User: What shape does this take?
Amino acid sequence: MKILLKLAYVGTAYCGWQAQNNGNTVQQRLTDAAHRLFGFECDVTGCSRTDSGVHANGFCATVSKRGELGLETSVPTDRIPRAINCFLPDDIAVVSAEWVDDGFHARYDVKSKEYVYKIFTRQERDPFLAERAWHHPKQLDVKAMNAAAQYFVGLHDFSAFMAQGSKIVDTRRTVFSAEVSSRGDTVEFRVSADGFLYNMVRIMTGTLVEVGEGKISPDELPNIISSCNRSSAGITAPACGLYLDRVFYK
Amino acid sequence: MKILLKLAYVGTAYCGWQAQNNGNTVQQRLTDAAHRLFGFECDVTGCSRTDSGVHANGFCATVSKRGELGLETSVPTDRIPRAINCFLPDDIAVVSAEWVDDGFHARYDVKSKEYVYKIFTRQERDPFLAERAWHHPKQLDVKAMNAAAQYFVGLHDFSAFMAQGSKIVDTRRTVFSAEVSSRGDTVEFRVSADGFLYNMVRIMTGTLVEVGEGKISPDELPNIISSCNRSSAGITAPACGLYLDRVFYK
Assistant: This one.
Protein backbone atom coordinates (compact mmCIF):
# COMPACT_ATOMS: atom_id res chain seq x y z
CA MET A 1 0.00 0.00 0.00
CA LYS A 2 1.14 3.56 -0.70
CA ILE A 3 -0.16 6.83 0.71
CA LEU A 4 -2.22 9.23 -1.39
CA LEU A 5 -1.93 12.80 -0.13
CA LYS A 6 -4.08 15.78 -1.05
CA LEU A 7 -2.19 19.02 -0.73
CA ALA A 8 -2.65 22.75 -1.14
CA TYR A 9 0.13 25.15 -1.97
CA VAL A 10 0.78 28.77 -2.82
CA GLY A 11 2.90 28.34 -5.93
CA THR A 12 4.53 31.78 -5.92
CA ALA A 13 7.87 30.69 -4.47
CA TYR A 14 8.16 27.48 -6.50
CA CYS A 15 9.38 26.45 -9.94
CA GLY A 16 6.23 24.36 -10.23
CA TRP A 17 5.66 20.83 -8.96
CA GLN A 18 8.31 18.77 -10.71
CA ALA A 19 11.71 18.28 -9.03
CA GLN A 20 14.57 19.87 -10.97
CA ASN A 21 18.28 20.01 -10.44
CA ASN A 22 18.32 23.75 -9.88
CA GLY A 23 15.05 24.87 -8.48
CA ASN A 24 12.82 25.05 -5.48
CA THR A 25 9.91 22.71 -6.29
CA VAL A 26 6.91 21.45 -4.37
CA GLN A 27 7.81 17.82 -5.17
CA GLN A 28 11.27 18.29 -3.67
CA ARG A 29 9.85 19.84 -0.50
CA LEU A 30 7.31 17.03 -0.10
CA THR A 31 9.96 14.37 -0.75
CA ASP A 32 12.16 15.90 1.96
CA ALA A 33 9.25 16.16 4.40
CA ALA A 34 8.23 12.51 3.83
CA HIS A 35 11.84 11.44 4.42
CA ARG A 36 11.93 13.33 7.71
CA LEU A 37 8.56 11.98 8.85
CA PHE A 38 9.03 8.31 7.92
CA GLY A 39 12.76 8.08 8.48
CA PHE A 40 13.56 6.57 5.05
CA GLU A 41 13.90 8.00 1.57
CA CYS A 42 10.65 8.18 -0.41
CA ASP A 43 9.43 8.39 -3.99
CA VAL A 44 6.76 11.05 -4.47
CA THR A 45 4.61 10.94 -7.62
CA GLY A 46 2.29 13.84 -8.51
CA CYS A 47 -0.98 13.91 -10.44
CA SER A 48 0.31 16.54 -12.82
CA ARG A 49 3.09 18.97 -13.52
CA THR A 50 2.20 22.53 -12.63
CA ASP A 51 3.98 25.59 -13.97
CA SER A 52 6.09 27.96 -11.96
CA GLY A 53 3.82 30.25 -9.91
CA VAL A 54 0.67 28.11 -10.34
CA HIS A 55 -1.23 27.28 -7.13
CA ALA A 56 -3.13 24.21 -5.93
CA ASN A 57 -6.09 23.67 -3.66
CA GLY A 58 -6.27 19.91 -4.15
CA PHE A 59 -3.10 18.54 -5.77
CA CYS A 60 -2.72 14.76 -5.31
CA ALA A 61 0.51 12.82 -4.86
CA THR A 62 1.49 9.35 -3.71
CA VAL A 63 4.33 8.48 -1.35
CA SER A 64 6.14 5.13 -1.31
CA LYS A 65 9.50 3.94 -0.01
CA ARG A 66 12.24 4.75 -2.52
CA GLY A 67 12.44 2.00 -5.14
CA GLU A 68 9.47 0.11 -3.70
CA LEU A 69 5.77 0.06 -4.53
CA GLY A 70 4.50 0.92 -1.08
CA LEU A 71 5.60 1.78 2.43
CA GLU A 72 5.02 0.76 6.02
CA THR A 73 4.65 3.20 8.87
CA SER A 74 3.42 3.22 12.46
CA VAL A 75 2.05 6.76 12.05
CA PRO A 76 -1.77 6.54 12.17
CA THR A 77 -3.31 7.64 8.86
CA ASP A 78 -5.33 10.49 10.36
CA ARG A 79 -2.19 11.89 11.98
CA ILE A 80 -0.14 11.92 8.78
CA PRO A 81 -1.28 15.34 7.47
CA ARG A 82 -0.43 17.25 10.66
CA ALA A 83 2.75 15.29 11.15
CA ILE A 84 4.08 15.87 7.64
CA ASN A 85 3.02 19.53 7.78
CA CYS A 86 5.52 20.03 10.60
CA PHE A 87 8.25 19.42 8.02
CA LEU A 88 6.73 21.51 5.22
CA PRO A 89 7.08 25.28 4.72
CA ASP A 90 4.10 27.56 5.46
CA ASP A 91 3.11 27.78 1.79
CA ILE A 92 2.56 24.01 1.37
CA ALA A 93 0.14 21.91 3.44
CA VAL A 94 -1.11 18.35 3.26
CA VAL A 95 -4.86 18.41 3.95
CA SER A 96 -5.69 14.68 3.86
CA ALA A 97 -4.13 11.24 3.53
CA GLU A 98 -5.45 7.80 2.58
CA TRP A 99 -4.04 4.39 1.68
CA VAL A 100 -4.18 3.18 -1.92
CA ASP A 101 -3.07 -0.06 -3.59
CA ASP A 102 0.52 -0.60 -4.73
CA GLY A 103 -0.74 -0.51 -8.33
CA PHE A 104 -2.29 2.95 -8.02
CA HIS A 105 -0.62 5.66 -10.12
CA ALA A 106 -1.15 9.32 -9.17
CA ARG A 107 -0.89 10.51 -12.78
CA TYR A 108 -2.05 7.65 -15.01
CA ASP A 109 -5.13 6.87 -12.94
CA VAL A 110 -6.54 10.40 -13.09
CA LYS A 111 -10.08 10.42 -14.49
CA SER A 112 -10.43 14.21 -14.55
CA LYS A 113 -8.88 17.38 -13.23
CA GLU A 114 -10.55 20.69 -12.45
CA TYR A 115 -8.77 24.04 -12.64
CA VAL A 116 -9.93 27.48 -11.53
CA TYR A 117 -8.53 30.70 -12.98
CA LYS A 118 -9.07 33.95 -11.01
CA ILE A 119 -9.12 37.40 -12.59
CA PHE A 120 -9.36 40.56 -10.50
CA THR A 121 -10.94 43.41 -12.48
CA ARG A 122 -10.95 46.40 -10.11
CA GLN A 123 -9.00 49.44 -11.28
CA GLU A 124 -6.85 49.46 -8.15
CA ARG A 125 -5.05 46.24 -7.31
CA ASP A 126 -5.81 44.22 -4.15
CA PRO A 127 -2.66 43.51 -2.12
CA PHE A 128 -4.25 40.32 -0.75
CA LEU A 129 -4.54 39.00 -4.31
CA ALA A 130 -0.99 39.88 -5.37
CA GLU A 131 0.39 36.80 -7.17
CA ARG A 132 -2.93 35.04 -6.41
CA ALA A 133 -5.06 36.38 -9.26
CA TRP A 134 -4.49 38.07 -12.62
CA HIS A 135 -5.00 41.79 -12.12
CA HIS A 136 -6.73 42.82 -15.32
CA PRO A 137 -8.31 46.20 -14.49
CA LYS A 138 -11.10 46.24 -17.09
CA GLN A 139 -14.76 45.39 -16.87
CA LEU A 140 -15.43 42.05 -18.54
CA ASP A 141 -18.66 40.80 -20.11
CA VAL A 142 -19.01 37.65 -18.01
CA LYS A 143 -22.13 36.49 -19.84
CA ALA A 144 -20.32 36.55 -23.19
CA MET A 145 -17.31 34.80 -21.64
CA ASN A 146 -19.52 32.05 -20.26
CA ALA A 147 -21.26 31.63 -23.62
CA ALA A 148 -17.87 31.31 -25.31
CA ALA A 149 -16.65 28.80 -22.70
CA GLN A 150 -19.48 26.41 -23.58
CA TYR A 151 -17.82 25.74 -26.94
CA PHE A 152 -14.90 24.13 -25.08
CA VAL A 153 -17.17 21.37 -23.73
CA GLY A 154 -16.83 18.02 -25.50
CA LEU A 155 -14.09 16.11 -27.32
CA HIS A 156 -11.95 18.47 -29.40
CA ASP A 157 -8.46 18.79 -30.78
CA PHE A 158 -7.23 21.61 -28.55
CA SER A 159 -3.94 22.25 -30.33
CA ALA A 160 -4.94 25.92 -30.81
CA PHE A 161 -4.81 26.10 -27.01
CA MET A 162 -1.39 24.49 -26.56
CA ALA A 163 1.88 26.34 -26.07
CA GLN A 164 3.99 26.21 -29.22
CA GLY A 165 6.88 23.80 -29.10
CA SER A 166 4.99 21.09 -27.19
CA LYS A 167 5.71 17.62 -28.51
CA ILE A 168 2.44 15.91 -27.62
CA VAL A 169 1.14 13.58 -30.34
CA ASP A 170 -2.53 13.28 -29.42
CA THR A 171 -3.86 16.79 -28.81
CA ARG A 172 -7.47 15.72 -28.33
CA ARG A 173 -8.99 16.18 -24.90
CA THR A 174 -12.51 15.92 -23.51
CA VAL A 175 -13.71 18.95 -21.56
CA PHE A 176 -16.51 17.93 -19.18
CA SER A 177 -17.53 21.38 -17.95
CA ALA A 178 -16.54 25.02 -18.37
CA GLU A 179 -18.08 27.95 -16.55
CA VAL A 180 -17.33 31.64 -16.11
CA SER A 181 -18.85 33.42 -13.12
CA SER A 182 -18.19 36.57 -11.11
CA ARG A 183 -18.46 37.75 -7.55
CA GLY A 184 -17.67 41.37 -6.78
CA ASP A 185 -14.58 42.33 -8.78
CA THR A 186 -13.38 38.75 -9.22
CA VAL A 187 -14.14 36.74 -12.37
CA GLU A 188 -13.58 32.97 -12.18
CA PHE A 189 -13.19 30.47 -14.98
CA ARG A 190 -13.67 26.87 -13.85
CA VAL A 191 -12.93 24.00 -16.24
CA SER A 192 -12.72 20.23 -15.89
CA ALA A 193 -11.35 17.76 -18.44
CA ASP A 194 -9.81 14.32 -18.76
CA GLY A 195 -6.49 16.05 -19.33
CA PHE A 196 -4.96 19.36 -20.33
CA LEU A 197 -2.32 20.31 -22.88
CA TYR A 198 0.62 22.52 -21.92
CA ASN A 199 -0.71 26.00 -20.99
CA MET A 200 -4.21 25.00 -22.12
CA VAL A 201 -6.16 26.64 -19.27
CA ARG A 202 -4.06 29.80 -19.46
CA ILE A 203 -4.61 30.14 -23.23
CA MET A 204 -8.34 29.39 -22.79
CA THR A 205 -8.44 32.15 -20.16
CA GLY A 206 -6.56 34.64 -22.33
CA THR A 207 -9.03 33.94 -25.14
CA LEU A 208 -12.07 34.28 -22.87
CA VAL A 209 -10.76 37.62 -21.56
CA GLU A 210 -10.62 38.90 -25.14
CA VAL A 211 -14.25 37.77 -25.47
CA GLY A 212 -15.04 39.65 -22.23
CA GLU A 213 -13.46 42.79 -23.67
CA GLY A 214 -15.52 42.49 -26.87
CA LYS A 215 -12.49 41.80 -29.08
CA ILE A 216 -13.65 38.27 -29.94
CA SER A 217 -17.30 37.24 -30.35
CA PRO A 218 -18.36 34.06 -28.49
CA ASP A 219 -19.47 32.57 -31.80
CA GLU A 220 -15.92 32.69 -33.11
CA LEU A 221 -14.83 30.02 -30.63
CA PRO A 222 -15.74 26.99 -32.82
CA ASN A 223 -13.54 28.38 -35.62
CA ILE A 224 -10.69 29.14 -33.25
CA ILE A 225 -10.83 25.59 -31.88
CA SER A 226 -11.09 23.93 -35.29
CA SER A 227 -8.24 26.05 -36.70
CA CYS A 228 -5.81 24.01 -34.56
CA ASN A 229 -3.64 27.11 -34.86
CA ARG A 230 -2.17 28.64 -31.70
CA SER A 231 -2.14 32.10 -33.25
CA SER A 232 -5.94 32.09 -33.67
CA ALA A 233 -6.45 31.93 -29.91
CA GLY A 234 -5.82 34.67 -27.36
CA ILE A 235 -2.85 35.43 -25.16
CA THR A 236 -1.52 33.11 -22.45
CA ALA A 237 -2.89 34.41 -19.15
CA PRO A 238 -0.25 34.71 -16.38
CA ALA A 239 0.45 31.72 -14.13
CA CYS A 240 -0.43 33.53 -10.89
CA GLY A 241 -4.22 33.29 -11.45
CA LEU A 242 -4.28 29.50 -11.98
CA TYR A 243 -5.25 26.94 -9.32
CA LEU A 244 -5.37 23.16 -9.71
CA ASP A 245 -8.57 22.77 -7.73
CA ARG A 246 -9.61 19.11 -7.74
CA VAL A 247 -8.47 15.75 -9.08
CA PHE A 248 -10.76 12.77 -9.59
CA TYR A 249 -9.50 9.18 -9.88
CA LYS A 250 -10.93 6.16 -11.66
CA MET B 1 -7.14 70.90 0.90
CA LYS B 2 -5.39 67.62 1.70
CA ILE B 3 -5.90 64.17 0.23
CA LEU B 4 -7.58 61.40 2.21
CA LEU B 5 -6.51 57.97 1.00
CA LYS B 6 -8.08 54.62 1.78
CA LEU B 7 -5.56 51.81 1.59
CA ALA B 8 -5.29 48.07 1.99
CA TYR B 9 -2.15 46.26 3.03
CA VAL B 10 -0.85 42.83 3.93
CA GLY B 11 0.94 43.67 7.18
CA THR B 12 3.20 40.61 7.31
CA ALA B 13 6.33 42.35 6.07
CA TYR B 14 5.85 45.54 8.09
CA CYS B 15 6.63 46.76 11.59
CA GLY B 16 3.11 48.19 11.64
CA TRP B 17 1.95 51.56 10.32
CA GLN B 18 4.00 54.06 12.25
CA ALA B 19 7.34 55.25 10.79
CA GLN B 20 10.33 54.24 12.93
CA ASN B 21 14.02 54.83 12.63
CA ASN B 22 14.84 51.18 12.10
CA GLY B 23 11.93 49.45 10.50
CA ASN B 24 9.99 48.86 7.36
CA THR B 25 6.64 50.56 7.96
CA VAL B 26 3.57 51.22 5.84
CA GLN B 27 3.69 54.94 6.67
CA GLN B 28 7.26 55.17 5.40
CA ARG B 29 6.38 53.39 2.16
CA LEU B 30 3.37 55.66 1.58
CA THR B 31 5.40 58.79 2.39
CA ASP B 32 8.03 57.74 -0.16
CA ALA B 33 5.38 56.92 -2.79
CA ALA B 34 3.63 60.29 -2.31
CA HIS B 35 6.98 62.07 -2.67
CA ARG B 36 7.66 60.27 -5.93
CA LEU B 37 4.18 60.92 -7.31
CA PHE B 38 3.83 64.60 -6.36
CA GLY B 39 7.47 65.59 -6.67
CA PHE B 40 7.72 67.18 -3.22
CA GLU B 41 8.11 65.81 0.29
CA CYS B 42 4.86 64.99 2.06
CA ASP B 43 3.46 64.51 5.55
CA VAL B 44 1.36 61.38 5.88
CA THR B 45 -0.98 61.02 8.87
CA GLY B 46 -2.72 57.73 9.62
CA CYS B 47 -6.04 56.99 11.33
CA SER B 48 -4.40 54.66 13.82
CA ARG B 49 -1.25 52.83 14.70
CA THR B 50 -1.36 49.17 13.79
CA ASP B 51 0.91 46.52 15.27
CA SER B 52 3.57 44.62 13.41
CA GLY B 53 1.95 41.95 11.23
CA VAL B 54 -1.59 43.40 11.43
CA HIS B 55 -3.40 43.86 8.11
CA ALA B 56 -5.78 46.50 6.76
CA ASN B 57 -8.64 46.46 4.29
CA GLY B 58 -9.59 50.10 4.74
CA PHE B 59 -6.87 52.07 6.55
CA CYS B 60 -7.23 55.85 6.12
CA ALA B 61 -4.42 58.39 5.88
CA THR B 62 -4.10 62.00 4.75
CA VAL B 63 -1.33 63.42 2.59
CA SER B 64 -0.24 67.08 2.65
CA LYS B 65 2.91 68.91 1.55
CA ARG B 66 5.58 68.65 4.25
CA GLY B 67 5.06 71.37 6.86
CA GLU B 68 1.87 72.65 5.21
CA LEU B 69 -1.81 71.96 5.81
CA GLY B 70 -2.65 70.87 2.28
CA LEU B 71 -1.16 70.30 -1.13
CA GLU B 72 -1.70 71.19 -4.77
CA THR B 73 -1.39 68.75 -7.64
CA SER B 74 -2.36 68.50 -11.29
CA VAL B 75 -3.01 64.75 -10.94
CA PRO B 76 -6.80 64.22 -11.32
CA THR B 77 -8.29 62.81 -8.11
CA ASP B 78 -9.60 59.62 -9.71
CA ARG B 79 -6.13 58.89 -11.11
CA ILE B 80 -4.34 59.25 -7.78
CA PRO B 81 -4.86 55.66 -6.54
CA ARG B 82 -3.45 53.98 -9.65
CA ALA B 83 -0.70 56.55 -9.96
CA ILE B 84 0.49 56.22 -6.36
CA ASN B 85 0.18 52.41 -6.54
CA CYS B 86 2.92 52.45 -9.19
CA PHE B 87 5.30 53.56 -6.44
CA LEU B 88 4.05 51.19 -3.73
CA PRO B 89 5.11 47.57 -3.18
CA ASP B 90 2.68 44.75 -4.10
CA ASP B 91 1.54 44.30 -0.51
CA ILE B 92 0.21 47.88 -0.16
CA ALA B 93 -2.44 49.46 -2.40
CA VAL B 94 -4.38 52.72 -2.32
CA VAL B 95 -7.99 51.92 -3.25
CA SER B 96 -9.56 55.40 -3.22
CA ALA B 97 -8.74 59.08 -2.82
CA GLU B 98 -10.78 62.17 -1.98
CA TRP B 99 -10.12 65.79 -1.00
CA VAL B 100 -10.75 66.93 2.58
CA ASP B 101 -10.41 70.32 4.30
CA ASP B 102 -7.09 71.54 5.67
CA GLY B 103 -8.54 71.19 9.19
CA PHE B 104 -9.35 67.48 8.79
CA HIS B 105 -7.30 65.15 10.98
CA ALA B 106 -7.02 61.46 10.03
CA ARG B 107 -6.75 60.31 13.66
CA TYR B 108 -8.62 62.86 15.79
CA ASP B 109 -11.67 63.04 13.51
CA VAL B 110 -12.35 59.30 13.59
CA LYS B 111 -15.89 58.55 14.76
CA SER B 112 -15.49 54.78 14.82
CA LYS B 113 -13.25 51.98 13.60
CA GLU B 114 -14.17 48.43 12.76
CA TYR B 115 -11.78 45.50 13.09
CA VAL B 116 -12.16 41.91 11.92
CA TYR B 117 -10.24 39.03 13.47
CA LYS B 118 -9.99 35.75 11.50
CA ILE B 119 -9.46 32.34 13.11
CA PHE B 120 -8.92 29.20 11.02
CA THR B 121 -10.03 26.10 12.92
CA ARG B 122 -9.31 23.18 10.57
CA GLN B 123 -6.86 20.56 11.87
CA GLU B 124 -4.57 21.01 8.89
CA ARG B 125 -3.40 24.53 8.14
CA ASP B 126 -4.34 26.37 4.94
CA PRO B 127 -1.26 27.70 3.12
CA PHE B 128 -3.35 30.53 1.61
CA LEU B 129 -4.13 31.75 5.14
CA ALA B 130 -0.54 31.58 6.43
CA GLU B 131 0.07 34.86 8.31
CA ARG B 132 -3.46 35.92 7.31
CA ALA B 133 -5.47 34.17 10.04
CA TRP B 134 -4.79 32.61 13.43
CA HIS B 135 -4.53 28.85 12.93
CA HIS B 136 -6.23 27.48 16.02
CA PRO B 137 -7.05 23.85 15.12
CA LYS B 138 -9.92 23.25 17.52
CA GLN B 139 -13.66 23.34 17.05
CA LEU B 140 -15.09 26.49 18.64
CA ASP B 141 -18.61 27.07 20.01
CA VAL B 142 -19.44 30.08 17.86
CA LYS B 143 -22.84 30.60 19.47
CA ALA B 144 -21.27 30.87 22.94
CA MET B 145 -18.58 33.20 21.57
CA ASN B 146 -21.20 35.45 20.05
CA ALA B 147 -23.21 35.50 23.28
CA ALA B 148 -20.06 36.48 25.18
CA ALA B 149 -19.20 39.18 22.63
CA GLN B 150 -22.50 40.96 23.31
CA TYR B 151 -21.22 41.92 26.77
CA PHE B 152 -18.57 44.10 25.11
CA VAL B 153 -21.25 46.36 23.58
CA GLY B 154 -21.70 49.69 25.34
CA LEU B 155 -19.52 52.10 27.33
CA HIS B 156 -17.10 50.20 29.57
CA ASP B 157 -13.72 50.57 31.19
CA PHE B 158 -11.80 48.07 29.05
CA SER B 159 -8.57 48.06 31.06
CA ALA B 160 -8.85 44.27 31.49
CA PHE B 161 -8.44 44.15 27.70
CA MET B 162 -5.40 46.42 27.47
CA ALA B 163 -1.78 45.26 27.21
CA GLN B 164 0.03 45.77 30.48
CA GLY B 165 2.40 48.72 30.55
CA SER B 166 0.13 51.00 28.49
CA LYS B 167 0.06 54.55 29.84
CA ILE B 168 -3.42 55.57 28.72
CA VAL B 169 -5.33 57.57 31.35
CA ASP B 170 -8.92 57.16 30.19
CA THR B 171 -9.47 53.46 29.51
CA ARG B 172 -13.20 53.77 28.79
CA ARG B 173 -14.37 53.06 25.26
CA THR B 174 -17.76 52.62 23.64
CA VAL B 175 -18.20 49.44 21.63
CA PHE B 176 -20.97 49.88 19.05
CA SER B 177 -21.22 46.33 17.80
CA ALA B 178 -19.55 42.95 18.31
CA GLU B 179 -20.35 39.79 16.40
CA VAL B 180 -18.85 36.32 16.04
CA SER B 181 -19.79 34.28 12.97
CA SER B 182 -18.40 31.35 11.03
CA ARG B 183 -18.18 30.18 7.45
CA GLY B 184 -16.65 26.80 6.76
CA ASP B 185 -13.58 26.45 8.97
CA THR B 186 -13.14 30.19 9.46
CA VAL B 187 -14.49 32.00 12.54
CA GLU B 188 -14.67 35.79 12.37
CA PHE B 189 -14.98 38.30 15.19
CA ARG B 190 -16.08 41.74 13.99
CA VAL B 191 -16.08 44.68 16.41
CA SER B 192 -16.62 48.43 16.04
CA ALA B 193 -15.93 51.09 18.66
CA ASP B 194 -15.12 54.78 19.07
CA GLY B 195 -11.57 53.73 19.87
CA PHE B 196 -9.48 50.78 20.98
CA LEU B 197 -6.89 50.37 23.71
CA TYR B 198 -3.51 48.78 22.95
CA ASN B 199 -4.05 45.10 21.95
CA MET B 200 -7.75 45.40 22.86
CA VAL B 201 -9.15 43.42 19.90
CA ARG B 202 -6.47 40.74 20.24
CA ILE B 203 -7.19 40.26 23.97
CA MET B 204 -10.95 40.26 23.28
CA THR B 205 -10.34 37.56 20.66
CA GLY B 206 -8.14 35.48 22.96
CA THR B 207 -10.87 35.65 25.61
CA LEU B 208 -13.63 34.72 23.14
CA VAL B 209 -11.60 31.72 21.95
CA GLU B 210 -11.45 30.46 25.54
CA VAL B 211 -15.24 30.85 25.62
CA GLY B 212 -15.43 28.89 22.34
CA GLU B 213 -13.34 26.12 23.92
CA GLY B 214 -15.62 25.97 26.96
CA LYS B 215 -12.95 27.25 29.36
CA ILE B 216 -14.85 30.45 30.11
CA SER B 217 -18.65 30.74 30.26
CA PRO B 218 -20.20 33.64 28.32
CA ASP B 219 -21.80 34.86 31.55
CA GLU B 220 -18.38 35.44 33.09
CA LEU B 221 -17.69 38.29 30.69
CA PRO B 222 -19.34 41.05 32.79
CA ASN B 223 -17.09 40.12 35.74
CA ILE B 224 -13.99 39.97 33.55
CA ILE B 225 -14.76 43.42 32.16
CA SER B 226 -15.55 44.97 35.56
CA SER B 227 -12.44 43.43 37.16
CA CYS B 228 -10.32 45.94 35.17
CA ASN B 229 -7.61 43.32 35.62
CA ARG B 230 -5.66 42.15 32.58
CA SER B 231 -5.03 38.75 34.14
CA SER B 232 -8.78 38.02 34.30
CA ALA B 233 -9.06 38.12 30.52
CA GLY B 234 -7.74 35.58 28.02
CA ILE B 235 -4.54 35.44 26.03
CA THR B 236 -3.52 37.98 23.40
CA ALA B 237 -4.38 36.47 20.02
CA PRO B 238 -1.56 36.72 17.45
CA ALA B 239 -1.32 39.79 15.22
CA CYS B 240 -1.63 37.87 11.94
CA GLY B 241 -5.41 37.36 12.26
CA LEU B 242 -6.26 41.04 12.75
CA TYR B 243 -7.55 43.38 10.02
CA LEU B 244 -8.45 47.05 10.37
CA ASP B 245 -11.52 46.82 8.19
CA ARG B 246 -13.26 50.20 8.10
CA VAL B 247 -12.90 53.70 9.49
CA PHE B 248 -15.79 56.16 9.82
CA TYR B 249 -15.28 59.93 10.18
CA LYS B 250 -17.41 62.59 11.85
